[in-house]
Write a structure and sequence with these properties.
Strand content: 5-15%
Oligomer: single chain
Structural class: alpha+beta
Order of helices and strands: HEEEEHEHEHEHEHEEHEEEHHHH
Strand order of the largest sheet: 5-6-12
Number of helices: 11
Helix content: 25-40%
Number of strands: 13
Length: 445
């Protein structure tokens, strides 16, 4: 769980903060109302591929991108790390990459990935003028509290956040020595390697067991195309480049059933026509940070040798989006994600238990908190097959707190609250006095 609690003790500072927040919200609403509705492009499922030699990339991007951002991602890759026959693909903004290529018997066995990527490369590059993505700079805020608050607001309305040059990663090298010195990762660490040659034969069984040393050794081998999606360590830093495509629903008032079918279709590689959807691609370079809200449909292409970090957190501001993602994933038997979060229910229970002692001045929204209560009061609706739900004393305590919150809203049961009515699913709701009625859970034992 990611949560920030700090009380502004200075009344003038508190008033200035509230004013700034209102101005930000007003500007956002104005931008939403004035924007034209975009056309819905074709989309597909995610893919990840090739590698990059950072020693051989001569062409640079425009200065508006900040520090040097390379546009030529072909030099040093084709003929060295990927087969010399790999085609070059042009992206918006002048970016050039090779297409996913792995040659067997004279044929590219990654032809499906290539076809998908050619479609994705037609989507516009995400820029600070994006209708759907917020580009923030930490230098624009008084301190990290205001910065995090701005991020929380963006995520609460379903807007991903991009922070350019968040961290200096220039000293990191993607080598055995680099991962050991920077992250303490042993080259002998056992990992599940996603092998694209195996995936081409048996799509649902793409993994082979190997070590980080073997993965790194294969970077300059055109006969291999492998990657590791998850290393069980808390990490930071980034090396290489990722092209992160984000898909957005242009009509957020779709019914839940329509929304579920739409998202399911986006994750189906055989469906290419998606009404009510548009997409933008964020070009992520070393040191950049992307934070996406819960249930954000995305696909990723890695055209260079890349070592990047990722994390998963929960927020009181985004529970209405977390609820949708968890419910749809349960209904669709886990088809919407490539990661199983085994302790999601336990984390959400602790979030409810922590509410009585949270910052009382924090604004929480009705739809988001009702969604949190739903996930605690009706856990079976969000349970994956491999998970077990036990009604322990801790769970019962959380359920009692959740029921009191629903009572505060004026409803006798969570089912009576119009949470599932047709509405904008990105709307977190109105601010309400969530602290009322929770005093009994603030008493120390």
């Amino acid at each position: 769980m990611n949560d920030t609690n700090r009380t502004l003790s200075n009344p003038e500072q508190q008033e200035a903060f509230k004013r700034k927040k209102c101005e930000t919200q007003a500007a956002y609403r104005k931008r939403q109302k004035s924007s034209e509705k975009p056309t819905a492009p074709e989309t597909g499922s995610s893919t990840q591929g090739s590698t990059w030699n950072p020693q051989s990339v001569p062409q640079t991007g425009p200065s508006t991108r900040g520090p040097t951002r390379y546009l030529d991602l072909v030099s040093g890759v084709r003929g060295i790390q990927v087969h010399e026959s790999a085609d070059v693909l042009a992206w918006p903004g002048g970016l050039r990459t090779i297409v996913p290529t792995l040659i067997r018997d004279g044929q590219n066995i990654l032809h499906f990935d290539e076809k998908y990527l050619r479609s994705v490369a037609t989507y516009p590059e995400a820029t600070p003028s994006s209708r759907y993505i917020d580009f923030l700079s930490k230098e624009s805020y008084q301190d990290y509290y205001d910065f995090v608050t701005a991020i929380r607001h963006s995520l609460s309305v379903g807007r991903p956040v991009v922070v350019r040059n968040f961290e200096d990663t220039s000293s990191f090298t993607f080598t055995e020595d680099g991962i050991l010195r920077t992250f303490g990762i042993s080259p002998n660490m056992r990992v599940d390697i996603h092998d694209t040659a195996r995936r081409a034969k048996v799509f649902h069984e793409p993994h082979v067991v190997g070590t980080m040393s073997q993965l790194i050794a294969g970077i300059n081998n055109p006969e291999e195309c492998q990657f590791v999606l998850d290393i069980p360590l808390t990490q930071r830093g980034m090396s290489g480049i990722k092209l992160w495509t984000l898909y957005f629903v242009t009509d957020p008032t779709l019914s839940r059933e329509e929304l579920k079918d739409l998202i399911d279709g986006l994750c189906d590689p055989d469906i290419h026509n998606h009404p009510h959807v548009c997409a933008e691609t964020v070009y992520l370079y070393p040191g950049d940070l992307l934070i996406q809200p819960p249930a954000q449909v995305h696909s990723v292409y890695t055209p260079t040798a890349s070592f990047s970090i990722g994390g998963h957190f929960y927020s009181y501001d985004c529970c209405h989006l977390t609820e949708i993602g968890r419910r749809f994933d349960a209904l669709l038997n886990g088809r919407l994600t490539n990661q199983v979060h085994h302790h999601a229910f336990e984390t959400i229970v602790q979030m409810v238990i922590g509410l009585p002692r949270s910052n009382p001045n924090r604004s929480l929204k009705t739809h988001s908190i009702v969604a949190l209560c739903l996930m605690v009061l009706q856990p079976e609706s969000y349970k994956m097959k491999e998970h077990k739900t036990q009604l322990s004393p801790v769970v019962r305590r959380a359920q009692s707190i959740a029921k009191e919150i629903i009572n505060t809203l004026g409803y006798g049961a969570v089912d009576q609250y119009p949470y599932f009515a047709k509405r904008n699913y990105l709307d977190a709701g109105e601010t309400f006095p969530w602290q009322l009625g929770l005093e009994q859970w603030q008493v120390l034992p």
